[in-house]
Design brief:
It is a single chain. The protein contains 6 helices and 9 strands. By secondary structure, it is of the alpha+beta class. It has a domain at 13-145: 3-Layer(aba) Sandwich (Aminopeptidase). Strands 1-2-3-4-5-6-7-9-8 form a 9-stranded mixed sheet, with helices on both faces. Strand 2 and strand 3 (29-34) form a beta hairpin. It is globular, with a radius of gyration of 16 Å. The protein starts with 12 loop residues before the first strand and ends with a helix.
Length: 198
Amino acid sequence: MDEAANSNSASSKEGASGGWHEMLRGGDRVLIRPIHKDDVEMERRFIEALSPQSRRFRFLDTLNSPSDALLEKLTTLNPLTDVAYVAVVEDGAREFEVGVARFSTQADGKDCEFAVTVLDAWQNKGLGTLLMKYLIVAAQKLGIEKMHSSDLEDNNLMRKFAAHLQLDHQRDPDDTTQVLYSVDLRSPPLHLAAASAS
C-alpha cells in the first residue's frame, strides 16, 4: 500500500480508479477509497442496511433513515480537518458499501475523534481493523497525536474491537453511559505502529 495507508497485507493493490484493493479473512475482496460528495445515496443505503443496534451504536441514538443534512455532513468533508474512507464491493460499475471509517480533527489539531462502522454481515472479517489502520496513517500524516472515540457502554462489539487493537479506555466522567477509547499515536501499540510504518 502506498502513501494513503500502509498495512502488512500483501493483497493490497492500488486500483485504477483510486483506492486500494484488499483481501479480507475468508477471501472477500473490497476496495477502500476516500469518500466522495457524490456517495450520498450509497451512504444512505449503507446506513439503512445496518441493524437497528448497529445504527444506535454508531449514532448514539435510534435512527431509521439518515436525513439529507446528515448525509451531506458525512460525505462533504473539510480536507484540512476530516478524513473518511469507505470499503466497497464492486459489481461492474456499481459499488456497494460494506464499511466506513472517519475522523474529524479537534480545534487544537493534535486530537481527533474517530468512528468505524462495518455492515453487520461483514463483521468479524478484519475489515474494521483494516479501516482503522488507514485512519491511523492518515492521522499521523496530519501530525495528529491522539485519536479517541466515545461509545455506548453496552457496545460489546466496540469493546472487543478496542481490546483487539489495545486501545486505552475509561468511563466517560461526564456520562456514565459512555466509554472513552483512545490511542496515542506518538507511541501506539506495537502491531499498529508496525502497520503504519510498513
